[in-house]
């Protein structure tokens, strides 16, 4: 459901979000623009045509490489200091829990505050934390600093994806999401590999310093994006808790957001089953040891990047509902195949398939939220959904641990395949209605707007009608 332009009712009481292009960027069609899209390819051509998106892309590339490199360093640092699984769990919880808390307690801030300031501030906070980590005296300090990183990331990610529709033309939005997700997943694979090698050779501290530098570079790139390109309008607060309730109501009333809430929460439980069962499947069921686990994880990274990269063009050719259902079905097919595989090599191929489905699904999720929420509420829509996803992921991990002990990893992965199949059916059914049903979301009548000038392709500014 697209939502981007507003119209007033006769008595100015209720505002309805109509099915119109979301993006604040409406590009006039020119001969040079058409030639550029065919010569360079619309996906990569975005980097040349849209300076704001190019800055965001490069910031994601740099900070992503540093983040995954440093994550390996954090885990090894805590492991060497404590040799305790409990401390490793604490580190992972410190990474996940802030996303939940931001969604539950601070979601409206992503819409009330300047998105540009939030992005730059989050990068600067993470820069400071990684500069402090080499001097951390113990594991408690490391986990506490990791929680601060998690809080900053909890604001950063929804602000990125909430602002993205304003940086590109609406017809380019699927490909823009594909590029961002593909580069994010690529940095996961490359950064993790490089981090392991760097920490083995030099210890964790150099990785911390390198990551700190990437956040400083990212902040400088984000500072080049004008605020008006990241945020069309901001709603004045009606009180923090009422603003938070508005986000929950929006998710409930928008078919697009409800699709993500239901289908992807089921998918997150399936992912939890996969994540918990994977080490046991590789080392016990396949007797492949650490190499087998690394092979399966690397295969997942390859699949995620490939699926995300191809999702944008697939959505344009086949429609969002079809790609969403098929992507979740690919997850089910790959996970089920891996569960039945005779060895780790066959399983690795199946994991590439499931990873591709996962990568494409994430692109569809982002697009559904971007087209299902008005700009001034989009940030809290992302944070509410992210916190819901994290909740189901955590619950799924607890359940998966017990099921793995009771039935073994193959059956847990088989269960994940069943859940992914259910998510595919539900996701397709709901997303199909998103494609064909106009979005009409009743917004709080008391809410007033602070408008930002919307910028045309060639730099001319105009005031958006409200």
Task: Explain what this protein looks like in three dimensions.
With about 475 residues, the chain is mainly α. The chain folds into two domains: about 35-235, MFS general substrate transporter like domains (Growth Hormone, Chain: A, Up-down Bundle), CATH 1.20.1250; about 240-435, Growth Hormone, Chain: A (Up-down Bundle). The chain contains 17 helices and six strands. It has helices spanning about 30-40, 40-50, 50-80, 85-105, 110, 115-130, 140-165, 175-200, 205-220, 225-230, 240-255, 255-285, 290-320, 320-340, 345-370, 375-405, 410-435, and strands at about 5-10, 15, 235, 450, 455, 460. The strands form three sheets. A two-stranded antiparallel sheet has the order 1-2. A hairpin with a 5-residue loop joins strand 5 and strand 6 (about 460). The two termini are about 20 Å apart.
Q: Gist?
A:
The protein has 466 residues and is mainly alpha-helical.
List the helices and strands and how they pair.
Layout lengths: L5 E3 L6 E3 L13 H10 L1 H8 L1 H32 L2 H21 L3 H4 L2 H18 L6 H25 L9 H30 L1 H19 L4 H4 L2 E3 L4 H14 L1 H31 L3 H30 L1 H20 L4 H29 L2 H33 L1 H28 L12 E3 L2 E2 L5 E2 L4
Helix pairs in contact: 1-2, 2-3, 2-8, 3-4, 3-7, 3-8, 3-9, 4-7, 4-16, 6-7, 6-9, 7-16, 8-9, 8-13, 8-15, 11-12, 11-16, 12-13, 12-15, 12-16, 12-17, 13-14, 13-15, 14-15, 14-17, 15-16, 16-17
């Amino acid at each position: 459901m697209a939502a981007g332009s507003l119209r007033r009712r006769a008595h100015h009481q209720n505002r309805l979000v109509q099915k119109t292009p979301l993006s604040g960027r409406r590009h006039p069609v020119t001969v040079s623009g058409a030639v550029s899209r065919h010569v360079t390819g619309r996906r990569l051509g975005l980097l040349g045509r849209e300076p704001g998106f190019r800055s965001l892309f490069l910031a994601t590339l740099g900070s992503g490489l540093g983040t995954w490199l440093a994550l390996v360093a954090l885990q090894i640092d805590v492991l060497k200091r404590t040799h305790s699984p409990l401390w490793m769990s604490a580190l992972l919880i410190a990474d996940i829990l802030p996303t939940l808390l931001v969604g539950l307690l601070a979601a409206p801030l992503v819409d009330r505050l300047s998105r540009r300031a939030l992005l730059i501030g989050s990068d600067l906070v993470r820069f400071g934390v990684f500069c402090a980590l080499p001097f951390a005296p113990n594991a408690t300090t490391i986990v506490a600093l990791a929680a601060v990183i998690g809080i900053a990331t909890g604001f950063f990610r929804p602000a990125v994806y909430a602002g993205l529709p304003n940086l590109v033309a609406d017809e380019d939005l699927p490909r823009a999401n594909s590029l961002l997700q593909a580069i994010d997943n690529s940095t996961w694979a490359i950064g993790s590999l490089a981090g392991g090698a760097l920490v083995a050779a030099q210890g964790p501290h150099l990785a911390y310093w390198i990551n700190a530098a990437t956040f400083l570079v990212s902040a400088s790139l984000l500072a080049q994006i004008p605020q008006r390109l990241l945020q069309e309008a901001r709603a004045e607060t009606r009180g923090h808790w009422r603003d938070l309730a508005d986000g929950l109501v929006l998710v409930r009333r928008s078919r697009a957001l409800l699709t993500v809430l239901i289908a992807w929460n089921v998918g997150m439980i399936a992912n939890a089953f996969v994540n918990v069962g994977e080490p046991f499947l590789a080392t016990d069921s396949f007797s492949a040891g650490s190499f087998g686990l690394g092979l399966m994880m690397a295969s997942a990274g390859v699949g995620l990047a490939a699926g995300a990269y191809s999702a944008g063009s697939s959505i344009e050719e086949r429609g969002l509902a079809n790609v969403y259902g098929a992507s979740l079905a690919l997850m089910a097919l790959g996970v089920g195949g891996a569960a039945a595989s005779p060895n780790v090599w066959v399983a690795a191929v199946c994991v590439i398939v499931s990873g591709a489905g996962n990568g494409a699904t994430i692109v569809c999720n982002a697009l559904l939220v971007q087209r299902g929420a008005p700009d001034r509420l989009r940030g809290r829509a992302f944070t509410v959904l992210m916190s819901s996803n994290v909740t189901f992921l955590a619950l799924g991990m607890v359940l998966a641990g017990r099921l793995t002990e009771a039935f073994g990893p193959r059956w847990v992965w088989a269960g994940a395949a069943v859940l992914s199949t259910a998510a595919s059916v539900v996701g397709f059914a709901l997303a199909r209605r998103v494609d064909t049903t106009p979005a009409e979301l009743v917004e709080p009548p008391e809410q007033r707007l602070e408008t930002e000038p919307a910028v045309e392709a060639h730099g001319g500014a105009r005031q958006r009608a409200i």
